[in-house]
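Exercise 7. Given the encoded structure of a 400-residue chain, write a plausible sequence.
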């Protein structure tokens, strides 16, 4: 189309984009400029947890847009204060730093970990242990932290001070702890790495390890926070709070936001002038986030996420019984991975042609992250499309 021709000329090709030009969204549906409608089980990669254009988020944005769009962080803003207060009342944290993305939230977390450790232990204790198959963002620091070679290719040298261990392997983690380590950073469930859920007890054991060596535990809940797993924060499943938690994606129900949450004593390490962001925590996005978070906790969204998560998992397991190329279904709440023995790309394309948006991570894992408001009927529709697509797969893995 005309749009795609123009994009080819002027928009950098940093994404392998699908040939859809999106125009409008409502609930779990996305319309393109040609009027085609899609059932959106990708939800902006776990951003649209309340679906597209949730009326309460839209109303909060509209109201705030006419009052104040931006002022500087040199001044206080009621919306930012209220959001910080809400987040602290609903988590382990006492204090929040606002930014604009997940990568920035992780940058803030790593700066805080370094500064805390330097002030407490001196200058050589700055290393952070992260997991293989993790994903923490696209800046130089966050690709250094990320445990996947593909995001680093071409950008070396990486920053000093990151060590990676297999996710879920406690013994490997323990062996990696030296006097130079200041923190362990983990996603409670790995999203981009293929929806990897650790065994029960793993996060608790990592917490104990951190306590033993006075390391900071950082949870990257950018993808799995904000209700995605059926509780507000993923760490609640094991009741082991971190020292620092990073959020972004679904926090404002669509608009860009990032946040780093921590305790009072750690927050004191980042005094005036140590860190900042021009747009971080601006009135518009904070008004949206407050509306989005209140909706998630007050409107039965978490219950729906758990119920629909179980239902979708059950339906995907039914397909597993039918198709030998489905190896495993795993996840929690409404982040569900379906590991295949074949490449997932052709299935994603074929599903899209039939009106279902999903994606594939690490080559062979189909990822389902629908809005948390998804209904049983919408799940049935999605599973029917998937079943149709899978029925056309020949043993070489080509969708017909
Ligand atoms: N951390 C995790 C766990 C993520 O899934 C992502 C994005 O997918 C990021 C960090 C980076 O977030 P952003 O793209 O907002 O910088």
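Solution.
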């Amino acid at each position: 189309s005309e749009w795609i021709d123009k994009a080819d000329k002027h928009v950098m090709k940093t994404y392998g984009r699908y040939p859809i030009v999106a125009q409008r969204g409502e609930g779990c549906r996305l319309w393109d400029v040609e009027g085609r409608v899609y059932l959106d089980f990708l939800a902006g990669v776990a951003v649209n947890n309340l679906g597209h254009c949730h009326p309460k988020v839209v109303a909060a944005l509209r109201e705030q847009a006419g009052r104040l769009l931006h002022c500087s962080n040199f001044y206080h803003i009621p919306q930012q204060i209220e959001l910080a207060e809400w987040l602290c009342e609903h988590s382990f944290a006492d204090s929040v730093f606002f930014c604009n993305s997940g990568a920035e939230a992780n940058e803030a977390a790593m700066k805080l970990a370094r500064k805390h450790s330097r002030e407490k232990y001196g200058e050589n204790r700055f290393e952070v242990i992260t997991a293989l198959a993790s994903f923490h963002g696209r800046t130089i620091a966050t690709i250094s932290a990320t445990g996947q070679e593909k995001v680093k290719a071409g950008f070396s040298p990486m920053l000093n001070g990151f060590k990676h261990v297999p996710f879920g392997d406690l013994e490997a983690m323990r062996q990696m702890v030296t006097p130079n380590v200041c923190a362990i950073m983990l996603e409670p469930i790995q999203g981009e790495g293929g929806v990897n859920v650790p065994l029960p007890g793993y996060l608790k054991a990592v917490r104990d390890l951190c306590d033993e060596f006075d390391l900071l535990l950082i949870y990257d809940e950018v993808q799995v926070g904000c209700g995605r797993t059926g509780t507000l924060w993923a760490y609640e499943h094991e009741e082991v709070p971190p020292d620092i938690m990073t959020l972004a994606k679904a926090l404002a129900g669509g608009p860009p936001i990032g946040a780093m949450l921590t305790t009072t004593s750690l927050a004191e390490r980042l005094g005036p002038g140590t860190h900042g962001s021009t747009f971080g925590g601006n009135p518009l996005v904070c008004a949206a986030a407050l509306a989005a978070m209140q909706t998630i906790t007050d409107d039965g969204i978490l219950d729906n996420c758990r119920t629909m998560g179980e239902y979708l998992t059950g339906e995907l397991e039914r397909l597993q019984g039918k198709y030998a190329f489905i190896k495993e279904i795993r996840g929690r709440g409404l982040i569900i991975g379906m590991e295949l023995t074949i490449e997932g790309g052709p299935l994603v394309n074929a599903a899209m042609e039939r009106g279902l948006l999903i994606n594939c991570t690490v080559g062979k894992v189909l990822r389902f992250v629908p809005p948390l408001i998804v209904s049983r009927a919408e799940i049935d529709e999605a599973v029917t499309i998937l079943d149709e697509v899978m029925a056309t797969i020949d043993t070489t893995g080509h969708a017909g």
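Remark. The first strand starts at residue 22 and ends at 26. Students should compare their own answers with the one above.
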